[in-house]
Amino acid sequence: MASDRKIYKFKEVETHNKTKDCWLIISGKVYDVTPFMEDHPGGDEVLLSSTGKDATNDFEDVGHSDNARDMMDQYCIGEIDGKTVPEKRNYIPAQTPAYNQDKTPEFVVKVLQFLVPLLILGLAFAVRHFTKKE
């Protein structure tokens, strides 16, 4: 590895976790993959999900080609200080909208699916009753 490459602490690397600023740790090296975000075959979500941790297992589990491995060199910006990488990643769940427990819109639709035919049937009987000749 070139001597001009920097040694990064984990705390610094983990802050680069956005589409416009994305760094990964793979096999002890730090990669700035920001320019590659739009071109990554798996999409930028895959890369973003590997930020804030040692992404070596994520990278190896996919089975990248030799060509992909060769491309990595152009994005390598340094090495990680292994002593600063936590052994276990703290899980932070994705921000999702609150769960609608009573499912009000779905309930209203089901009630209407039941009531509307009954109303039509009632209307038909009323029309028949009032228009019936005696």
Detailed description of the structure:
This protein has 5 helices and 5 strands; from the N terminus they run E-H-E-E-E-H-H-H-E-H. With 134 residues, it is of the alpha+beta class. It has a 5-stranded mixed beta sheet. The longest helix is centred in the last third of the chain and has 28 residues, at 104-131. The model has no long low-confidence stretch (mean pLDDT 85). Its main location: membrane. It comes from Tripterygium wilfordii (Thunder God vine).
The number of helical segments is: 5
Which structural class fits the helix and strand makeup? Answer: alpha+beta
Average of pLDDT: 85
* Highest-level CATH class of the largest domain: Alpha Beta
Strand-residue proportion? 5-15%
Features:
37% helix, Flavocytochrome B2, Chain A, domain 1, 134 residues, alpha+beta, 2 domains
Could you give a quick summary of the protein structure above?
With 134 residues, the chain is an alpha+beta fold. 37% of the residues lie in helices and 15% in strands. The protein folds into 2 domains: 7-80, Flavocytochrome B2, Chain A, domain 1, CATH 3.10.120; 103-133.
How are the secondary structure elements laid out?
Blueprint: E1 6-8, H1 10-13, E2 17-18, E3 21-26, E4 29-32, H2 44-48, H3 56-62, H4 66-71, E5 76-80, H5 104-131
Parallel strand pairs: 1-5
Antiparallel strand pairs: 2-3, 3-4, 4-5
